[in-house]
Design the sequence.
């Protein structure tokens, strides 16, 4: 992040050091409504990055600016060092966008759609690559079906294939798993992970935080047009979330004083005790034993991105 | 260039896959006009010596069919893509504004020319006459289709709903074509309306096209060619500027 190339100096000759995505001071208003209030963000090549935030935070607006579908009021955006306005052709060749909206052209079949999309990028359609995409997205049976005849989840998978058909170095997925069933969600992530392992940069938005937690090395959280948290996933987890012990005592038993003060009663009658490290599990259990309590049910909770998200959105952290 | 050709091919496929509606239907409706008007107006005097009123109608109707089809190809394609959202597939690509413009407009011109050619071929069955100036005929046909296709593209980019599109078509395109002398010569109009008609670029298209057919016209063909050519050029340039700026496409 610190070694960004200076303005006016040609992009770093060693391509590995050019940021995959660089956004500086991006602002966008719709009428009097400020959807983006100055966003700075840099995603390095090869990263698997999550952009999170509640509905209306501005994630899609930011992606649309990157895609050139929307024009910023202020700020600059670049993909692999190519400014999305001044050098739009190179920028668009470098990025594949999976839009949030389920759009399709009812005139064509799945294969026709992919061949056309390839052609728009000035590339000769590569049948082997198209077949590989269809296979990895489990669309091979539908290759010759009209787009109209696909289910919602299948249409979304075609959108993923369309974004990949020109083999972009950067892939941006705006809620790719909305409406996709569990099994396919897993195959989709397996495929995207493989692309990432082969060097593709992935930027992802999702409301399934466990997906972001298990896939992404770094996370940015947006709220009301601003980035309110940006860090490594593991750092966010240790900073804002704790492991916990959740237990149920036998009827009418109560925790000893010091533990009772720390315990949060849950709706189902269980008690949750936040701990700093797993070593504390032993201490909690020991305290219970010493007070002669019987534990009917016990669960050790992992730190969870959802807790981090809720804490950050409530504004409990800067 | 491949990007341009792909979009052009896609626009061609779009109307070709529904050619029943986009080619056959306009042909049938134009021939109906010809049959009905020819029947009703059969006693009318000749407008130009040696050319029956029925035959006089042929080039006007052919041009009208071309204009309406070229217009509706670009306009409906664009407005549909915008409303369904699949215009993003084009907007996400490195296609240059001129490639987008060229692909939409040229596919619409192909459709217009196809309809026009069919109308003309069928009319040969009734009126076997070869055009007086074939190159002139072709020039006016191409320019007319270009102008209508560009107007359609502007309308499609401007419109946000189908009814706005229909308003553009019903309050601008249809009156301009109907009042362009398809069914009459402007010499037959009262002086006031004759002067008003002179501001209608479609009039020059039809008049010049008719000159290509019969070798006679109301306006000098070179003047018509200049007016139609300049209008087409100016509108094309305007449309290119609008596309480059992302007017109503990139918000
Ligand atoms: N074209 C537009 N015109 C007016 N307001 C808009 C437009 N596009 C977005 N907005 C507003 O900008 C804000 C941000 O929208 P955006 O779609 O970026 O949110 P998001 O973070 O992607 O939300 P979600 O999780 O629901 O997809 C919202 O309040 C939305 O209403
Ligand atoms: Mg969104």
Sequence:
């Amino acid at each position: 992040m610190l070694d960004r190339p200076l303005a006016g100096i040609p992009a770093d000759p060693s391509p590995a050091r050019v940021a995959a995505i660089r956004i500086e001071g991006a602002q966008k208003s719709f009428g009097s409504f400020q959807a983006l209030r100055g966003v700075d963000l840099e995603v390095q090549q090869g990263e698997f990055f999550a952009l999170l935030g509640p509905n209306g935070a501005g994630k899609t607006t930011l992606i649309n600016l990157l895609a050139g579908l929307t024009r910023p009021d202020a700020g600059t955006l670049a993909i692999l060092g190519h400014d999305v306005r001044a050098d739009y052709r190179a920028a668009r060749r470098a990025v594949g966008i999976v839009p949030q909206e389920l759009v399709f052209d009812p005139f064509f079949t799945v294969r026709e759609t992919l061949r056309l999309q390839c052609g728009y990028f000035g590339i000769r359609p590569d049948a082997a690559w198209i077949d590989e995409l269809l296979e990895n997205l489990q669309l091979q049976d539908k290759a010759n079906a009209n787009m109209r005849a696909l289910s919602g989840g299948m249409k979304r998978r075609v959108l993923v294939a369309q974004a990949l058909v020109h083999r972009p170095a950067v892939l941006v997925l705006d809620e790719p798993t909305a409406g996709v069933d569990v099994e396919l969600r897993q195959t989709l992530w397996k495929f995207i992970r493989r692309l990432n392992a082969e060097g593709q940069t992935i930027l992802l938005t999702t409301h399934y935080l466990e997906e972001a937690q298990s896939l992404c090395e770094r996370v940015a959280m947006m709220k009301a047009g601003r980035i309110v948290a940006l860090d490594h996933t593991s750092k966010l987890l240790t900073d804002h979330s704790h492991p916990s012990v959740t237990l149920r005592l036998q009827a009418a038993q109560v925790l000893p004083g010091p533990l009772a003060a720390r315990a949060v009663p849950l709706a189902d009658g269980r008690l949750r005790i936040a701990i700093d490290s797993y070593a504390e599990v032993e201490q909690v259990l020991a305290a219970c034993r010493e007070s002669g309590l019987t534990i009917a049910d016990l669960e050790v909770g992992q730190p969870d991105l959802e807790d981090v998200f809720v804490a950050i959105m409530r504004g409990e952290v800067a | 260039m491949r990007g341009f050709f792909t979009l052009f091919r896609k626009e061609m496929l779009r109307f070709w896959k529904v050619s029943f509606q986009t080619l056959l239907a306009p042909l049938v409706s134009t021939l109906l006009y010809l049959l009905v008007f020819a029947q009703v107006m059969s006693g009318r005097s000749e407008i130009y010596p040696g050319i029956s009123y029925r035959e006089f109608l042929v080039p006007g109707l052919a041009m009208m069919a071309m204009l309406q089809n070229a217009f509706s190809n670009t306009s409906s394609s664009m407005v549909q893509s915008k409303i369904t959202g699949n215009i993003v597939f084009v907007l996400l690509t490195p296609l240059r504004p001129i490639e987008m413009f060229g692909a939409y407009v040229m596919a619409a011109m192909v459709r217009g020319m196809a309809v026009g050619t069919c109308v003309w071929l069928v009319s040969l069955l009734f009126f076997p006459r070869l055009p007086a100036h074939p190159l002139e005929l072709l020039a006016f046909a191409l320019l007319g289709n270009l102008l209508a296709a560009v107007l359609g593209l502007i309308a499609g980019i401007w419109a946000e709903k189908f009814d706005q599109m229909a308003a553009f078509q019903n309050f601008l395109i249809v009156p301009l074509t109907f009042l362009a002398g398809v069914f009459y010569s402007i010499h037959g109009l009262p002086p006031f309306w004759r002067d008003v008609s002179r501001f209608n670029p479609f009039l020059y298209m039809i008049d010049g096209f008719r000159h290509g057919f019969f070798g006679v016209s109301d306006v000098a063909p070179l003047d018509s060619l200049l007016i139609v050519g300049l209008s087409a050029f100016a509108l094309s340039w305007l449309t290119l500027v609008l596309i480059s700026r992302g007017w109503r496409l990139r918000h």
Observations:
- The mean pLDDT of chain B is 93.
